[in-house]
Every structure is written in structure tokens, then in C-alpha cells.
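no rush on this but wanted to send it before i forget. theres a chain ive been looking at and ive put its sequence and its fold in C-alpha cell form underneath. i want to understand how the C-alpha cells follow from the sequence so walk me through it. thanks a lot i owe you, the record is right below:
>
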Amino acid sequence: MRRKLCFLSIILLGLQPIQAEFSGVFELEWGLDDNLHTQKFDLTFTPEWSFELAENTSMTLIARARYSGVDSLGSVTTRPDNYSDVNGAIIYETDGELSIREWYIDTEALGAFWRIGKQQVVWGQADGLKVLDVVNPQSFREFILDDFEDSRIPLWMLNVEIPITDEGSLQVLWIPDNTYDEFAQDNSNYEISSPLFVPQLPKGLSLVGLTKNKPSSIINDSDIGLRYSVLKSGWDLSFNYLYHYIDTPVLYQNIEDQGVVIDSVYERNQLIGATASNAFGDFTIRAEIGYNTHSYNLSSNITQRGIHKSSELSSIIGLDWQGLENTMISGQWFQSHLFDYDTNVIRPQNNNVFSLMYRRSFQNDAWDIEVLDLYGLDQDDGLLQFKVNYFLQSNIKLIAAMEIFHGNEQGLFGQFHGKDRLTFAIQWGL
């Protein structure tokens, strides 16, 4: 989509010429709600520059300018408090923003590959849900309807890849950026309302205060990640460890004379996990597993400040089939289990979500369609997504999509029941 247009030679302070490439994508996206009222009208420009600074050293800069014609998804004029002082947009306006999405240097030194700067790191390969892909926080401005690449929030970090053997390498991450998940604004279309995530105050009491405790130390509050990846007997394997702050704050509830004060606190967790995948003819098996030493879930027991702490095991097992030409069918089973549980916890001890995806391309990839169905077994709710892409030219893509929520209105997906969406978009690559 991002076809390179030109190569420039730039002379800087009498040094050797710096080779540079420029590309970019314009996107116009128009979204309609289930009453055919305009929910979203965004014009986005994402330019990208790549510079060859020296042998084995390059720099990449990706920016994003977004204009929003309507504010159903929320608008801000100040930096949201989930961002650190060095992250977030450069300019916030009621109808748009300007930000640096990624800005990093790639180099090779000391027998390792270094990426230094603002970037995304992807762990895991699941569709629609995450187990290990939690290195970067996420924007939930559009819940999970946006592509992960666009909704993931890049972080300033040091990312080092160290070859260990011919088939194995160790990735080391140091993340001093105290930026966390961004949630949809109050009264916007995808404001979180499910009791799984929003405290339900005791009868007769009202919310009288909110305090926020956000990490801010570059050193003491840093996140550290390790991943060892290896190819063994046809299996792509990884072993992961992440010492990090959970990107969603824990909402402790304190009863005072006048009502309830919520104390929003970011808590530490250790994530220990692994991935495995292998192809057997037309089939590919994928698996992810992650053990969290600490998870914090809402509870009806106000004497425990409305929060129950437990270790948690999450996993995804996926099976992909490509037995038909230009076609893939993929199924997934996601499960999470709380080891320490009591009946006051709002969520079930075992939470199961199933997904089924169908993808097919036509006419030498000029057309492709994708259908993804996510169904939450324990909450009896789900999300059904349809998407059609058509390449009008090699650099012009037309998109039509529909998202339908259904089921229990207290569930993860059902909380948006009645907020279905029809979207049309055009992407023009430079």
C-alpha cells in the first residue's frame, strides 16, 4: 500500500549524503450507526520517512494527522492523562490531532540489532483478543474495531535483538515510557459501561471523588521484557517474560461519609508466557499461553475495596486451514482462569471466548472479503464483523465494513448492543 515514490540525497553539514525515502497514506473513513446517523468522519494522513544514516544504521519517522468531522467518538483539547510527558499527540484540537506515531533508529553493534526510539512491539498472533500482545498499551476510542496496528500506542523504548544460535535469538526490552491504555471518553459511542470493568456503587451511595495514582519515574517505573525465539523441528517457539504495570488502572472503592471515592491505581504484574506454531499440510496450529502473577477483578465485596486479586492463566489455541485456493478459515478458543476465586467476583472464574474467521481473495487479489465472529460463551454475547476490500488501483483501496454487537448487555461485547456500525473508506497510498 505504501509504494515508495522517490529517493532523495540530502547533504547535512558537509557529511556524506543521506539516502531518504518517503511514503504515505491518505484515508477517508465514514461510519454510520444503526440509525444511519454519521458516527465517524475521519480524514487521516500518515506520512513515513526512512533515512539511511550510515552503513547498517537507519532512521524511521511515522507521523499521523487526523481530522474528525464529528465528535461521536469523543474529542479532546488537552493531553489525556494516560500518556507520559514524552508521549501523546503534539497538537490536540476539538476536531483533530497531530502526533508522531513512531520514531526510531535501527543499527547493528556489539553483535546485536538495536532499535531505539518510539515503536511497537508485537508478541503473539491472536485474532481479535490478546494474551501476550501487551507490551504496548491500546487506544479503545473505537473499542477493538480498529486494526491493532492503528490502535496500539507506540512507546519510547530500547529494543535489542541478540542472536544466540543460528535459529534462536533473545529480545531484550527496556521501556521507560509511563503511557497506558486510552479509553473512550464519557458519553462517546464506545464508553465502557459493563460491570465487568466499571464499579457498580452500593445502593444508596454515590460517587463523590476520584483520585489517580499514575507511575512517573523513568527508572523505578520502567517495564522490562525478555523473549527468546527459536525454530525447532519445524516449530516456531517463543518464551516470554514481561515485568510491567498493567495498562488498565485498578479502581479501588473507598466508602466515606458522603459516598464512594474511587482510587485509580496502576499495579505491577509479571507475565510469563510462551507461543508455538507449526504447519502440517493445509493446517497450521497456533498456541499462546500466559501466566499473570497478579490480576485485579471487580468484586461486590466493598470491605475489600471492591477488588479481588488473583493469579490468572490465559491461553489461545488456534487452527488455520488453507485447503482451498485463496481461502483461509481460522478458529480460536480463548480461555482465562482465576486461581483464587470467590462468589463476590463479578467475572466468572473461567472465561471462554470462541472466534471463527473466513478470509478469501478474488481476481488476483483485487478483491478480498473477511468475516470474523467473536462469541463470549460465559457472557452469551458477541461481535460479528464483515469487511470487503477492493483495490481500484495498486495504491487505491476501497473498503466497506460492518460490525454487529449482540447478546448480554453486561458482557464485554454486549455492552455495545445497539451500537452497530457501517463503515466506508478509501485509502490512497503515495
DSSP finds one helix and 25 strands in the chain. Residues 148-151 form the longest helix (4 residues).
